[in-house]
Amino acid sequence: MTQDETRLSGTPVTFRGRGLGLRLGARLLVLVCPLCSQRNAARGAERGICEWCAYVPSEKDEDPARK
Fold first, then answer.
1. How many CB atoms lie within 10 A of CB 49?
2. How far apart are CA 23 and CA 52, in angstroms?
């Protein structure tokens, strides 16, 4: 397992069925934005916001991702 895979190993989530994120303990990373559908830059994902449209996820919007 690489360092990136270890760092980003978490529980996959969506935001009301859209986008893609990871739950890492108390942190919520946005990998694909549910509003603008853009893949997020690593810096934005780690900050928990969309670098394209400034979407900030809410825990109430979080749903488990389908496998």
1. 18
2. 20
Residue with tokens 């760092």: 7
So what's the pLDDT on residue 54?
93
Which phi and psi angles does 28 have, rounded to 5°?
-125, 115
Residue with tokens 């890492």: 24
The answer to whether 40 touches 51, Cβ cutoff 8 Å, is yes
Instruction: Give the tens place of pLDDT for each residue, 22-66.
Output: 999 888 999 999 999 999 988 888 888 999 999 998 888 898 887
Task: Render pLDDT for 4-18 as a digit per residue (tens, 0 to 9).
Answer: 444 557 899 999 999
Task: Give per-residue burial for 13-33: e unless 16+ CB within 10 Å, then b.
Answer: bbbeeebbbbbeeeebbbbbb
